[in-house]
Amino acid sequence: MKSQNHAKKKANFLFLCFLISFILLLTSFFQIGNHILKNDKIIAQNGVFDFKNADPLVGGKRYYLHGDWEFYYGVLLKSNPPKITPKKELFPVPASYAGNPLKTTPYETGGIASYRAYIENLESTMPLTIYVPNLACAYRIYLDGVLVTESGTLAKANSESWSSASSTRQKVNLSPERHELVIEVSSEHYSGLYLTPIITGFHAANRYQNAAISMRYAFAGTIFYASMVLLFVVLVSKRRYFSSWLPLLFLFLSLRLMISTEGFIVTQPTFFWLSYEKMALLTFASTFVIKLVSLIYFKDELNLSFSMEFTAFLSSLFLLVAVGVAFLPNSVYSNYYFVILQLVSTIADLYLINHLCLSTAQGNKNAGLFTLAYFFVLSGITVDAIYTNGLLPMVCSSFMPLSLSIFALFLIIIHARRADEIYRAAQEAKELERALEKANMSVMISQIQPHFLYNALNTIKSLIRRDPKTAEKAIIDFSYYLRGNMDSLSHTEPIPFETELQHIQYYCNIELLRFSDKLTIEYDIQEEDFCVPTLGVQPLVENAIKHGVTKKPEGGYVKLSTYRKDGFYVICVEDNGIGFDPDALPEEDGRSHVGLQNIRYRFKSMLSADMTIESKPNVGTKVCIKIPQQQNVKDKAKDKDKDKA
Q1: Cα(97)–Cα(94) distance, rounded to whole angstroms?
Q2: Closest Cα partner for 349 from 314, 303, 325?
Q3: What's the mean pLDDT in 69-89?
Q4: Lowest mean pLDDT: which of 60-74, 158-172, 422-436, 493-507?
Q5: In the chain, what is the greatest distance between 2 CA atoms, to the nearest angstrom?
Q6: Helices (H), 362-496
Q7: 3-state secondary structure of 309
Q8: Which of 230, 285, 414, 526 is most buried, by the most CB atoms less than 10 A from its CB?
Q9: Out of 2-16, 134-148, 247-261, 368-382, which region has the weakest mean confidence (pLDDT)?
């Protein structure tokens, strides 16, 4: 009870540490983002960006265009200028014009809108560009009435809007005078500039985008390759090295990287030019799929205690959230709802993390690494969801590829360690097999010690003169006995019991000639259609004779019996000799008898058999071996024959 309470306390402590670390990570992203934006953010005042006191745009410098823009709902100022001067209001960027659960606005999601601001006192010696990275809406950017950036097709009808993951950008050269900047947006469900427009060097923007794509696909390709290798191992290997859910999890991770943010720039043609906005919905759904597969994978790997019924419940819940969000009416739909609905998945996250911490506290050596690995996948997906829905102030799309790759790396390390453990176990098994063979050899050789040969030959010598026929039979028994010992040198697998019984009878016939007045041998053989280790029972009979009955002045009997009971084959060797204390078995002392512990080990390792010893000083000894019927070689052979028939 104390150990269980200690494990629960430790698990609660680990769970608390996980949550604190996760919260600190998210907080640090906001803090780092705000710190970066101190120098990289220009805030519009009444729709005017004044760069008079800003650092010059050189190298890879970029500016985030935050602040209040002029906002025109339902209007395309440049593409389709209205005949009547539209209603103007100031609206914050970045923000969704459909609002969020904490703020009510009169606008539905989707549709068209225009933003206008003015740039003053900005001069650069290098060509510039203006764009909105990773925006799901289709948009166009006009500078002084000239189209400089385009991403997708804008249309008044929501369903006709189509957005591209990439943007077509033109070089822009600015003078210190005032310039008009207009951004038009069009979407089916999303709402305006919820991500921040950026102005930066034209070549720097291209280099950044290419670097982001290269890094993302380097990580995605590595994970995808790992998934294919793991899948191949699952298909061709008979041994279960890892859960079959692992390749599927890796496959979803790599797919997640290829269909989101910069990844979709490359794969959009592969998906039949599906609108980036619709792919964003699939990306949202893939988050729930990854978490669900992770849940099942961890349960399978660590034998976690939650039920499959709970997993089925979570599956239904995730499916409802992931797919159902696409059917929300525009009056309800908002990209901020993505973040809110994403929190639903924390039910599974917290539940899984709790079980991982408990498994770690209970001493599962891999559970701690699994917990740490899941920290990265949870962090990457959460940060990506917050960023792509406009709640992080800076571009941080590279964090998710990095975190998912670290997650995959941890899993590879865990399973590499497990493969190493399997290899070591196999090596140890080989060493044990060699030790067993050595023990078998010792057993066999111990049966033909010189003193036994000397005694047997002396007995035969004395019989030759007074009883030639008995001597002849003794020589035959002795030769068969020797041949049985020599034949056993080549046997590493269990042999039929009838073969072992014949060997016992040859041995006993010789001993009966030596101790005829003091020794009686009894046989009660009810079952003999099973297998035993070679020379596995004969040493027990030898011990009973040499160290039991013949040590008693008046002698006694040795009884060998076999029978079947409760699914076991039972072998008993019983004598009424001098007995001994079974709790104080002597260690190997170099005598001719074979240690009982060695015999116990051979039966256990070969046939999963158990050996019991009952003995009382001056009363006798009884050794019984119980061999499971399903472990017996002969029974398995019979089953195979039945299957073939």
Answers
A1: 9
A2: 314
A3: 89
A4: 422-436
A5: 140
A6: 367-388, 399-446, 450-466, 468-488
A7: helix
A8: 230
A9: 2-16
Task: Give the phi and the psi of residue 559 in degrees, each rounded to 5.
Answer: -120, 130
Q: Say which residue the tokens 């005017």 belong to.
A: 48
Contact 615, 573 (CB under 8 A): no
CA distance 379 to 106: 34
Separation of alpha carbons 34 and 21, rounded Å: 20
The identity of residue 337, as a single letter, is: Y
Asked whether 226 and 275 are in contact (CB, 8 A), the reply is no
**The two three-digit tokens of residue 42, written as one number:** 């220009």
Of 640, 622, 641, 637, the residue nearest 494 (C-alpha) = 637
Residue 73 pairs in a beta bridge with 113
Amino acid at 18: F
SS3 annotation, 242-282: CCCHHHHHHHHHHHHHHHCCCHHHHHCCCCCCCCHHHHHHH
What predicted TM-score, i.e. pTM, was given to this entire model? 0.67
| 555 token code pair | 């002698």
CA distances from 61 to 123, 165, 201, 202, 481 (A): 13, 23, 7, 11, 94
Residue 413 contacts residue 429 (beta carbons within 8 Å):
no
What are 90's two structure tokens?
Answer: 């100031």
Which tokens sit at 91?
């609206």
Measured in whole angstroms, the distance separating CA 328 from the mean position of its chain's CA atoms is: 35
Model pLDDT, residue 644: 43
DSSP class of 162: B
Whole-angstrom distance, CA of residue 584 vs CA of residue 341 = 69
- Residues 605 and 597: their CA atoms lie apart, in Å, by 12
Tokens, residue 551:
């040590």
Strand ranges (E), 27-110:
41-44, 48-50, 62-73, 89-93
Tokens standing for residue 201 = 């060097």
